[in-house]
Design brief:
Length: 273
Amino acid sequence: MATVIQFKRSSTQNSVPATSDLSLGELAVNTYHGRFYTEKNDGSAAIVEVGSNPKTFTINDALTFPTADGTSGQILSTNGSGTIGFTDAASSGLTTFIYTCTGTQTVFSGADDNSATLAYTVGLEGVYLNGVKLVAGSDYVTTSTSVITLQANAVSGDIVQVVAQTSVSNLVQGYYTTSALTATTANQVLSSNGVANKSIKYVISATHSTGTHAAEVLLINDGTNAYFTQYGDAYSASSLFTLSSDINSGNMRLLTTPANTNTTFKTFQIRLT
């Protein structure tokens, strides 16, 4: 008859041996869960679990993972002291809404496939049709902060995703329209923001009876001086303005010198604090 070798064992649910139950290197098994244990000693004796289906999960004696699932939509994060846990993902500021078309459809609003109600900040959304990013204005329009309208029909089975920026603690956007600048005085203030705004991107549109001039600008500062680069200039007839920048009384300013009197400027800016 074959010899049967059995380890120390317990059939009690959640039973774990103590260091006094095992010698160094000896194995024990909990037959209820199928979990193995052994004793280690790195200066102090301790019981460790061996193999799959562990009750606890620790890596390198330093990183401990949760033993129960979180709630839907939560993510794993660390407390910085070796413990991993589930936390809400809302702090990332991004929310994804998913709509599966059941027929021909252009308007998407209200509850999505996960019963989440669409809400977004205009200009900070991303819209995808079957994984392909759509272009605002040409592929879709933002008719409100709770509705996305496609310019062409989506059909049954298509999946529309809206990635919405809902938390903008470090991101501020604005659309500003100035009064017509009646003079061609040099270095008129087009925009002024505190130097805590380290970088700002502008889209500028200037209109005059002679035509239109548009450009993009990146403006930064180091607390003492302001620096900018201007690119993407497009105009229908001739240039309508030149730009410069400075820091004045703790504000980073974008300045303009119009080429003509009665020029109207519109600026859209994204600034990072």
